[in-house]
Write a structure and sequence with these properties.
Elements lengths: L19 E4 L2 E9 L5 E7 L4 E6 L14 E4 L8 E7 L5 E6 L7 E6 L14 E4 L25 E3 L5 E5 L8 E5 L14 E3 L6 E10 L3 E9 L7 E8 L13 E4 L10 E7 L5 E6 L14 E6 L15 E2 L4 E8 L5 E7 L4 E6 L14 E3 L4 E8 L5 E8 L5 E8 L2
Antiparallel strand pairs: 1-28, 2-3, 3-4, 4-5, 6-7, 7-8, 8-9, 10-11, 11-12, 12-13, 14-15, 15-16, 16-17, 18-19, 19-20, 20-21, 22-23, 23-24, 24-25, 26-27, 27-28
Length: about 425
């Protein structure tokens, strides 16, 4: 049966097993991507705390041409624990994975694999790199780590068209993060800001980075949450740099942009995903936090907004106001269709993972799913979304299976 016989937002039964592929041994998937052949790559952490990288055929089956079994499960540097947080396919078809040793404080770990799943021995030492590198003549930032509760967005690392690598390094004990640039072989590119990295800082406030995007190879945008006081209410925050690692003064105020909406009284904003548009505007996907009188910081609503080229909220989108869900939950990531519509994925708290589709003006596309929304088939959470070349929607998250136990899952929906 062809997917064309189904409506937009319907589960695609030609993918995996009746529309989904389950991974019983995987605790979480933190990243999804596709290659030029529309194979689907997923990266995350196993139940026994190893990093996990799988390749699926375009229709959701483990591709046994990759590492002989369709997946790689290992640890970085021989550590006892590891997790993979991002995955990218570079211009030569190699698979770059970043993650950490799951709370051990060593830094960001990178591993690169050839298309067949074998380690790329031209990268670092036997295919692996740890950032920051061993300290020699030059002093590198101290106490660098991604902790066990590190961010889980695939956008915190990207590979440029020349094979060089940009990544964000989270820090220990609340210090602000660093943006690093590496050569194709994994060495630090010291032409970037004169030393290979720049520290993200703004008026002494705590910055919690979540995503990194490159616009036309010239502007680097970091999305984050800014916590300005002890209320635990965050504001959406973006920082722009040029390709040399210097602040992009044309963006916001001197390269910095604090998003005033949603306001603190609405719970503020945590930015979780950014997507640039051809005109250099970009979508912001995220969630609010608690209203000031609610105490414990349980995220309340999913947020979608659009910014203009200078970082201001775009008045052509919902008159400049963010669109919030009318249910308690969050949006975690998004994808942009060829027609300009935006797909977002997240969770309705206490229920299931959920997808939604919006028109460019911020109105729900009621022709998608059930009046604009499509829930995962059973209880769980939604985390990731990407598009295949024909526009079909690949979503990742967790949900209960037939025996009632939850597992990580990848699903496909009709565009």
């Amino acid at each position: 049966m062809k997917t064309e016989e189904y409506n937009a937002g319907d589960l695609d039964p030609t993918f995996g097993k009746k529309g989904s592929t389950a991974f019983a041994d995987v605790d979480y998937f933190f990243a999804l991507t596709t290659d030029e052949h529309d194979n689907v790559y997923a990266a995350g952490r196993t139940l026994d705390n190893k990093y996990y990288v799988a390749r699926l055929t375009p229709d959701g089956l483990l591709d046994k041409r990759f590492a002989g079994v369709g997946y790689i499960s290992s640890t970085f540097g021989g550590a006892s624990k590891s997790q993979a947080l991002t995955i990218n396919i570079d211009p030569k078809g190699r698979i770059l994975v970043t993650g950490d040793q799951y709370g051990t404080g060593t830094g960001v770990c990178l591993a690169r694999f050839m298309p067949d799943g074998k380690p790329d021995k031209t990268f670092g030492k036997d295919g692996e790199v740890i950032v920051p590198p061993e300290r020699a003549a030059e002093r590198y930032p101290n106490e660098c780590t991604q902790t066990s509760n590190a961010n889980s967005q695939s956008g915190t690392c990207t590979v440029l068209s020349d094979g060089k690598i940009l990544l964000i390094l989270s820090l220990y004990k609340g210090e602000n993060p660093y943006l690093f640039k590496l050569e194709e072989n994994g060495a630090v590119d010291k032409t970037f800001n004169g030393k290979g990295y720049v520290q993200l800082a703004y008026e002494g406030k705590a910055i919690y980075q979540t995503c990194l995007r490159v616009i036309k190879g010239e502007r680097l945008i970091v999305g984050a949450a800014l916590r300005p006081d002890d209320s635990r209410i965050s504001q959406g925050f973006l920082i722009a740099y040029d390709s040399k690692g210097l602040p992009d003064r044309s963006f916001g105020k001197g390269g910095y942009c604090v998003l005033e909406k949603p306001a603190k009284e609405q719970g503020g904003l945590e930015v979780w995903d950014l997507h640039p548009l051809p005109d250099q505007k970009f979508w912001v996907v995220g969630r609010t936090g608690p209203s000031p009188w609610m105490g414990d910081p349980v995220p309340e609503h999913g947020v979608l907004t659009r910014l203009d080229t200078h970082g201001s909220q775009d008045i052509e989108f919902n008159n400049g106001d963010p669109v919030l869900t009318d249910f308690q939950g969050e949006w975690m990531s998004g994808a942009i269709q060829a027609d300009g519509k935006v797909i977002v994925v997240g969770t309705r708290w206490g229920e299931a993972g959920v997808l939604a589709r919006y028109h460019p003006d911020g109105t729900l596309d009621i022709g998608f799913g059930n009046n604009g929304f499509r829930y995962f088939p059973s209880v769980g959470t939604g985390r990731l979304v990407i598009l295949q070349k024909d526009g079909r929607i690949i979503a990742g998250g967790r949900m209960a299976q037939d025996n009632g136990s939850p597992s990580s899952v990848i699903l496909r929906y009709v565009q």
